[in-house]
Amino acid sequence: MTRDAHDEDRREAREEWEPSPDGAEQPQEEPKHPGWLTLAQVFKTADPFFEKILFLLAYDYSSNIYVIKGDYLTIVDPGNDYTGFMDLFRLGYKPEDIKKIVLTHGHRDHCMGAFELLRAYPALVESGGFELILHPESPGELKEVVRKFGSQVTEVQGGETLELSGQQWEVLYTPGHTVDGLSFYHAPSKTAFTGDLALPHAMAEIDHNAGGRLDHYLFGIKVLLQKDIAHLLPGHGVPVASLGNRVVEQTYESLMLKIIGVEKEIPWIEGAQALVTKGLLEEAVFCCDRELARQADNLRAIQLKAYCLTDMGRCEESLILLDQVLARDHANIHALTAKGHALLGLGRYLESVPFFDQALALNPEFQEPQIYKGMALYLGGKVDEAMDIEIFQKEFAHRVKQQFANKPGAQAPTRPDQA
């Protein structure tokens, strides 16, 4: 993440722990760090699940550190803060209690604590060390050093289920910030460790040197969007209770701003159109939904969403929207063509033809419904009628013949009425 965003998270986090009364002077010294807390304390709940997870807020050049308690300790991101472990062991835990360390990615601020544990606490090494769990693309030097100290390295790629201190966590491959990004999801509690991929109040920078890519970031966020995340445990900033899905959606929106190339609040319908031109149909549908949440009767948004759904193969959903449009604007030539196209996509070939005819009655020169009508007739077995449509012959029949002509030994396609 950027240094500015990191500092902002630190400032907001301190305010969360020690809010100042209205009108009070700001202290000259930095507020005291809250130290190790259970997530139950952070979330102000008595839930036993959150009682079993300890949290140390990131500061300076470290990430947040999480510790899952059970028959042994699991650390999620050991950070880069040796004093944090000194404080942890003062609470009564021992270095040799640590049996697993899980990394969300291999940035120094998230992983260097693993070295510190092995170098500073001989009892941990003598007990057999820990199992380091990370992605295959994580830094090789990290794996090499850990192995030299006698610890085990386990590589996961996503899709696995990990037992961490008695809890079952699903591994999610969420690249983008880096190539080795992982998130971990606990379905029963709807809780996710997201590293730097999804952060409250900030978006992580894409680290190209670590294999980060914008298109991969979009993929990673869409993986998180498929999960019901109520509670989000980020690599920086204060953990988020109940509103985890919203944080993921905000990151998704920020990514779309980058893709569209604007820096202000996204203009939803214009954003949807820009995303369509880039072939990002799911993102365009997301923008249309945001516009419709603001203005439910926006025909432009309904119509654009329907087009996207058809192209995504979700034709039944598209038909419902197109019927809404045509109920209010029965002479909408584009909606008529789109409804025929959706029916065509469902294999209802001859049923689609009347809608193309209605569109052509409004504009006989409109080529799109002519092409689709020819396709519908051809696939519906009315080959001669299809071939009477000149543009269909040129755009489709010629291409089919050319395709077969380029393949040695290929035979011309059989006409439906001769099959």
What is the gist of this entry?
With 419 residues, the protein is of the alpha/beta class. It has two domains: 3-20 and 27-257, Ribonuclease Z/Hydroxyacylglutathione hydrolase-like (Metallo-beta-lactamase, Chain A, 4-Layer Sandwich), CATH 3.60.15.10; 330-419, Serine Threonine Protein Phosphatase 5, Tetratricopeptide repeat (Alpha Horseshoe), CATH 1.25.40.
Distinctive features:
single chain, 419 residues, alpha/beta, Metallo-beta-lactamase, Chain A, Serine Threonine Protein Phosphatase 5, Tetratricopeptide repeat, 2 domains, seven-stranded mixed sheet, five-stranded mixed sheet, 18 helices, elongated, disordered N terminus
Describe the protein.
By secondary structure, the protein is α/β, with parallel strands linked by helices. It folds into 2 domains: 3-20 and 27-257, Metallo-beta-lactamase, Chain A (4-Layer Sandwich); 330-419, Serine Threonine Protein Phosphatase 5, Tetratricopeptide repeat, CATH 1.25.40. 48% of the residues lie in helices and 12% in strands. The chain contains 18 helices and 12 strands. It has helices spanning 3-17, 39-43, 48-51, 82-90, 108-120, 122-126, 140-148, 214-225, 244-260, 268-277, 281-294, 299-311, 315-328, 333-345, 349-362, 367-379, 383-387, 390-405, and strands at residues 37-38, 53-56, 65-68, 73-76, 98-102, 131-134, 152-155, 161-164, 167-173, 182-186, 191-195, 231-234. Strand 2 (53-56) and strand 3 form a beta hairpin. Helix 10 (268-277) runs antiparallel to helix 11, helix 10 runs parallel beside helix 12 (299-311) and helix 14 packs antiparallel against helix 15 (349-362). The longest helix is centred in the middle third of the chain and has 17 residues, at 244-260.
